[in-house]
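User: Hi! I have a protein structure encoded as tokens and I'd like to know what sequence might fold into it. I'm fairly new to this, so please keep things simple.
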């Protein structure tokens, strides 16, 4: 999806959006609940996480200018299997399910939204393959190359959780650089 296409999609989605301001540490989407909003992260930083054996496991970071929702919950009206919370004070635009349903009748919107979904699937596929093929040190290097600001904005224990390692192991990897 090109930047121009993404901007057009954002305009379609959020022309009549509501604005929500959230403080750092606020859970926006709760595991086990049905999520009814589709979001655009205008300002701030978020993380997606779930519980495994009583521990929070971070699986995603969301930065400014990203679209997101709890896909299975939003589109299938089912309970969400994870939570999304703010790591920084954040400003989000959102629309609800009914507004999304109305947009589905617009052919241009359908085309743009399909391109967006395909780009997200490709991104998640790359992430999954990296989790299978790459050792944590390689995943850390890729993460740092893709988003160098991540080290300044995200607490180390969240990065370690995202990489599937302990904070101590992450410190060792960082010291080898």
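Assistant: Happy to help. Inverse folding works backwards from shape to sequence: for each of the 177 positions I chose a residue that suits the local structure. Here it is:
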């Amino acid at each position: 999806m090109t930047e121009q296409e993404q901007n057009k999609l954002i305009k379609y989605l959020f022309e009549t959006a509501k604005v929500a301001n959230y403080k750092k540490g606020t859970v926006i989407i709760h595991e086990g609940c049905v999520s009814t909003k589709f979001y655009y992260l205008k300002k701030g930083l978020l993380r997606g996480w779930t519980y495994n054996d009583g521990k929070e496991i971070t699986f995603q970071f969301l930065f400014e200018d990203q679209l997101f929702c709890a896909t299975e919950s939003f589109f299938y009206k089912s309970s969400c299997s994870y939570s999304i919370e703010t790591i920084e004070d954040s400003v989000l635009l959102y629309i609800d399910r009914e507004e999304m349903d109305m947009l589905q009748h617009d052919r241009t919107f359908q085309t743009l939204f399909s391109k967006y979904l395909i780009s997200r699937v490709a991104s998640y596929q790359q992430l999954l393959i990296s989790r299978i093929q790459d050792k944590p040190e390689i995943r850390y290097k890729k993460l740092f190359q893709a988003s160098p600001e991540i080290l300044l904005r995200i607490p180390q224990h969240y990065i370690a959780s995202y990489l599937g390692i302990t904070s101590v192991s992450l410190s060792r990897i960082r010291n080898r650089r």
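A useful reference point when you look it over: The two ends are 34 Å apart (CA to CA). Feel free to ask if any position seems puzzling.
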